[in-house]
Amino acid sequence: MMRSKFLSLLIRAPSVCRSMSTATKLTTIDVNDKTGIATLTLNRSPINALNVELLQDLNESIKEIEDNKSRGLILTSSNDKVFSAGLDLNEMYRPDKDRARLLWIKLQDVWLALYSCDLPTAAAINGYAPAGGCLLATVCEYRVMLPKCRIGFNETQLGIVPPIFCMFNFLNVLPRRVAERSLSQGQMFTTEQALQIGLVDDVVSSKGEALDKCTKFIDTFAKVNPLARSLAKQQFRAADLQRFQTERAKDLESFLAFINHPQMQEGLGIYLNSLKKKQQLNAV
Ligand SMILES: CCCCC/C=C\CCC/C=C/CC(=O)SCCNC(=O)CCNC(=O)[C@H](O)C(C)(C)COP(=O)(O)OP(=O)(O)OC[C@H]1O[C@@H](n2cnc3c(N)ncnc32)[C@H](O)[C@@H]1OP(=O)(O)O
């Protein structure tokens, strides 16, 4: 209630860029009054690891942007090196059972909200985007990336089966053969490779340019009837959405069984440790 009152006040404010930031600030929303486009920024320090709270916040922000009839949604990160490090591995290592369940449900919700989003969506990938980071980038309809970053689904490299929604995203973006190979090999692509295979649409040298490109992409729909555009998008995605709904409960149980497996726990512990060790080495 307070939140919507606050929002309506902000909407009337005459600023060029109005902020609809959520109270927790794990994500922020800025709506450009000139273009009507909302920029949704991931803002969980240090590397936008997707934990329950960030996913919950993301869901609320996506809904807020849709409800406020923005003309489009641009997803980006406040970190200038990392778009998102993917799922927060600490939520999966020695997990709290209820939180682990919630984590996956919230991830499914975010995917669903973006995959079926009424608005045109674009990702300004201003840093590394492994696994869940790649999921957020490839669920959007357009991607632009900064140089010297990496993107991809590295799950199989970690001994993890990529869930079906990773497959849907890749099949929307890449030729089937490339999608299958990169998912089954857990390939991570440099920005330049990503551009070459069509995983990203463009490469630019700054975040500002990335946001401009995303705005231009969304502007290409300016003269298209919004309802027709949205229904055409839904039509293309209907079969995936149907399959997702059919398999959603099974997908959740598979995730829980998978992360609770002793071998998976051992592997996660080693992997988390190696990430921490990397920092220790850098400090030497
Ligand atoms: C139908 C069947 C379905 C079955 C499904 C079953 C299972 C599905 C399994 C779940 C799927 C998971 C998908 C995922 O998203 S898993 C996460 C994968 N992510 C990664 O592998 C990324 C690892 N991180 C990195 O490569 C780098 O950190 C970086 C993102 C490139 C950033 O590098 P840098 O800026 O140099 O930062 P640091 O490496 O120093 O990291 C800072 C800090 O953060 C910790 N950390 C890094 N990544 C994560 C993470 N994903 N989760 C939690 N914590 C992370 C890192 O250890 C450092 O911590 P300290 O400051 O404490 O040292």
* Shape designation: globular
**Annotation, overall tally of beta strands:** 10
Strand order, sheet with most strands: 1-2-3-4-5-7-10
C-alpha Rg (nearest Å): 19 Å
Q: How many distinct helices?
A: 10
Keywords: Acetylation, Fatty acid metabolism, Isomerase, Lipid metabolism, Mitochondrion, Transit peptide
Main location: mitochondrion
GO biological process, one term: fatty acid beta-oxidation
Subcellular location: Mitochondrion matrix
Secondary-structure map:
Layout: H1 2-12, E1 17-19, E2 27-32, E3 37-42, H2 52-67, E4 72-77, H3 97-115, E5 121-125, E6 129-130, H4 132-138, E7 142-145, E8 150-152, H5 164-173, H6 176-185, E9 188-190, H7 191-197, E10 202-203, H8 207-219, H9 226-260, H10 262-283
The structure holds ligand LLH4SW3U.
The site of ligand LLH4SW3U has 29 residues, from helix 9 and helix 10.
Structure, explained:
- The protein has a single domain (2-283), classed as Alpha-Beta Complex (2-enoyl-CoA Hydratase, Chain A, domain 1).
- It has helices at residues 2-12, 52-67, 97-115, 132-138, 164-173, 176-185, 191-197, 207-219, 226-260, 262-283; strands spanning 17-19, 27-32, 37-42, 72-77, 121-125, 129-130, 142-145, 150-152, 188-190, 202-203.
- It starts with a helix and ends with a helix.
- Residues 1-16 have low confidence and may be disordered.
- Helix 5 packs across helix 6 (176-185).
- The strands form 2 sheets. A 7-stranded mixed β-sheet has the order 1-2-3-4-5-7-10, sandwiched between helices. It has a 3-stranded mixed β-sheet with strand order 6-8-9.
- It is of the alpha/beta class.
- 40% of the residues are buried.
- It binds ligand LLH4SW3U.
- Residues 46-47, 49, 81-82, 85-90, 128, 130-132, 154-155, 160-161, 163-164, 251, 254-255, 258, 275-276, 278-279 line the site of ligand LLH4SW3U.
- One of its GO terms (biological process) is fatty acid beta-oxidation.
